[in-house]
Amino acid sequence: MLPQALAIVPAPILLLVIFTFIIIFLSPLFVLKPAAKPQHNNGSSKKHPPPGPKPLPIIGNLHMLGKFPHRTLQALATKYGPIMSLKLGQVSALVVSSPEVAQLFFKTHDLIFANRPKLQVVETLSYGRKGLVFTEYGGYWRNVRKLCIMQLLSASKIEMFHPLREKELGLLVNALKKASSSREVVDLSDLIGEVVENITCNIILGCNKDDRFDIKGLIHEILHLIGLFNLADFVPILASFDLQGLKRRAKKASKAIGEALEQIINDHEHPSSIESPEHKDFIDILLSYMNQPMDPHDHEERHIVGRTNIKAIVLDLIAGAYDTSKVTIEWGMSELIKNPRTLKKLQDEIEALVGIHRQVEEKDLEKLPYLDMVVKEILRLYPVAPLLVPHESLEDVTINGYFIEKNTRIMVNVWAIGRDPRIWSENSAMFFPERFEDNDVDVKGHDFRLIPFGSGRRGCPGINMGLTTVKIILAQMVHCFSWELPLGMSPEDLDMTEEFGLSIPRRKHLLASPTYRLHTKLD
Ligand code: HEM
């Protein structure tokens, strides 16, 4: 998933207006408080911060980030190196751009960087950070994470929800079969989004449609708000002005989603009002812990499960699962349609295993090594959260001779690491899954050349669920259908521009025409 504190930088004109506002009304305050903090001096006179571009007063380096911060930061890192200092408004930040340095941060010194920054909108939306993604490092976060892994994200729970994925995917295949028989062009971005949303909502909430409220619309608003650039997070003195109206919108969204979740929880507590639930969803599981300690074995911390915790946790998990798998599959299908050789090779692999008379099943996935390479290649070129979710240092530390202050914000440019020709050879920009043939690079956070799920304590706990969803949907779509771009469009014409926000989806929706290729009855 991914919440990105640092998203689209406002248009220069907005920046100019705000800058003027600051200069006119607030500059006296800054005169009393210098923008750059003085260096600590505990006896040593040499506490160098990492190198970085010179910041401007008040806005620091914010103006430099542009529309695609991951690309700008990649270019800046070639000048300043793999540990680079930035000033984002009043916030001290660091950008990590090499596997070696990422390993120092998330393996050698993982504990020091296990915190998350406090963000205004998230504070409102996650009930004062009672969820998981942006929750501060400590006993509460540990308890929630353990509970989520045990009750939702473990191998056995993922397996338990497999009929649900199968059912939703079956509906998608049927819709595509119809489009195939009438030779329609379909909006693949929308269809992939819908199937992932339905799977996520069903697993977590037990429903994907509810006429009483627009649950998906609310989730979209929440993800959008978290993804927006919020000046209040970088120039805290502006927080109370709510110049962009984000706090107001967050409060409104929080109230609406809170009421909806309250209703959904009520329905779960009084099952007669739900139409015969077929399976236990995550809310059922959390309710079975109600008023009990999250982790009965933790004798130091006793955090009791209450309604607010349930709402905050559920929201974070939906946010974590929603966009991530959708965006990965969307880029994957784009690259496969753009590269017919790779698509054919993947179809051949699946066909050799399952034949042409039946669909792929989840039990087949582990016997498909080329699919595994294709997914790694997608995540290398299109990491959903190009700068991961920001981390924050819990104490002062010196790394590679550079002094890093407590409360520094850390961004890891996994997008830049994934495209670095020194790591991936001169063809690093090319979609070429075979590069993983002769090595054992994995995506699970052990090999810092490829960390699309992050690594260490704050690494993604949903890796296995995410990979299962991505693999089964991709495999099914390429096995059941051949794909062509709309009439008159060649693979070179396919626009691969991204959009920066909470995640980096395609700017333009992916449109394509499916042809059913299995030898089963076409209904
Ligand atoms: C392809 C799918 C996915 C990708 C690429 C992905 C990626 C990520 C990334 C990059 C992070 C931040 C790691 C860091 O800051 O170091 C993260 C964190 C997280 N992800 Fe995922 N994710 C995916 C699927 C999921 C799923 C399915 C769930 C849950 C249902 C999930 C739940 C979370 C949570 C709760 C966190 C925050 C962990 C913490 O702060 O302790 N993710 N994910």
Structure characterization notes:
It is a single chain. The strands form 3 sheets. Strands 1-2-7-4 form a 4-stranded mixed sheet, covered by helices on one side. It has a 3-stranded antiparallel sheet with strand order 3-9-8. Helix 13 crosses helix 15 (369-381). It is globular, with a radius of gyration of 24 Å. With 523 residues, it is an alpha+beta fold. The two termini are 36 Å apart. It has helices spanning 12-32, 69-80, 99-108, 120-125, 139-153, 155-160, 162-181, 188-204, 215-227, 231-234, 246-269, 282-287, 307-338, 340-354, 369-381, 414-418, 421-424, 463-480, and strands at 83-88, 91-96, 186-187, 391-392, 397-399, 402-404, 409-412, 481-484, 511-516. The structure holds protoporphyrin IX containing FE (HEM). Protoporphyrin IX containing FE is lined by residues 1-2, 132-133, 145, 316-317, 320-321, 324-325, 328, 384-385, 388-389, 452-454, 458-462, 465-466, 470.
Topology readout:
Blueprint (H helix, E strand, L loop, with lengths): L11 H21 L36 H12 L2 E6 L2 E6 L2 H10 L11 H6 L13 H15 L1 H6 L1 H20 L4 E2 H17 L10 H13 L3 H4 L11 H24 L12 H6 L19 H32 L1 H15 L14 H13 L9 E2 L4 E3 L2 E3 L4 E4 L1 H5 L2 H4 L38 H18 E4 L26 E6 L7
Parallel strand pairs: 2-7
Antiparallel strand pairs: 1-2, 3-9, 4-7, 5-6, 8-9
Helix pairs in contact: 7-8, 8-13, 9-11, 13-15, 13-18, 14-15
